[in-house]
Amino acid sequence: MGSQQKPGRVLVVTHPLREDVAELAEKLAAALRSADVAVRIITGEVRSLLHPDALLVVEPGGEEAAATADLVLALGGDGTVLRSAKLAAEADVPLLGVNFGKVGFLAEAETGELETVVSRLLDGDYGVEERTALAVEATGTDGELHRSWAFNDIAVEKAEPARMLELFIEIDGTRISRYGCDGVAVASPTGSTAHAMSAGGPVVWPDVDALVVVPMNAHALFAKPMVVHSSSEIRIGVESVGTEGALIADGKELTRLTAGSTVTIRRSARPVRLVRMSGQPFASRLVSKLSLPVDGWRHGRI
């Protein structure tokens, strides 16, 4: 799989509301500290981690803790991994996800494998895989420039359920189409299996050098999902009068958009470096995580 240095400092990011994750984090920290690894934890309002006898330093923020870490370890579902990914990318350190959620598509290991995960981390027995992320610049309703980052996807969506959003799309300076739609999602290859896939977009293997543009419920003659090169610049303009749009990054609203607002999306200069401990190919992960019926509905029929 690869040989890495044993991390000397680990930042653990937990699901903010689950006490079972907090208890696991305490055990994990104890195991790492017994091997002379410094551990810090970012958590939410979980009382057990605030107990004075806890073996942990609980951090209220994240940026400084990540900047002094050698590795970020996320305990939770895909939401926790996404929250951790930004910290890891900004600090340029690897990210390891341990699934405590339902699907855990972004996680490398399950909770039952935690003992093995700790052992392999201490032995440096793991690889690191670089994944494309997204950068966005937008002019919101306040007229200010908003900048953000996403691992999975950036979306411009209608803010009012009963109204349609009028948008145009330009790719590398060329107008492609104009839609009345529910919105447009732009996804990294990693994010192609999230919001974009649910909206009818293609599944893109994570090592493909591309971005995905997916119109959502668009009223237009040309409203197909598009796969573009990762160096492309994607510009989305809001033309609706009286209907607001919302700019969403990895599921979190950043700002509201009104007529005349523009959103520009590019590949980020800060990729995500994911820890890999399994030689499982992406196709196998896709089948297992999504429980794909590989035999098809005709299996066993004459």
From TrEMBL:
Cofactor (UniProt): a divalent metal cation
Key word Transferase present: yes
EC id: 2.7.1.23
Subcellular locations according to the entry: Cytoplasm
GO cellular component: cytoplasm
Coiled coil residues, start to end: none
Function: Involved in the regulation of the intracellular balance of NAD and NADP, and is a key enzyme in the biosynthesis of NADP. Catalyzes specifically the phosphorylation on 2'-hydroxyl of the adenosine moiety of NAD to yield NADP.
Designated name of the protein: NAD kinase
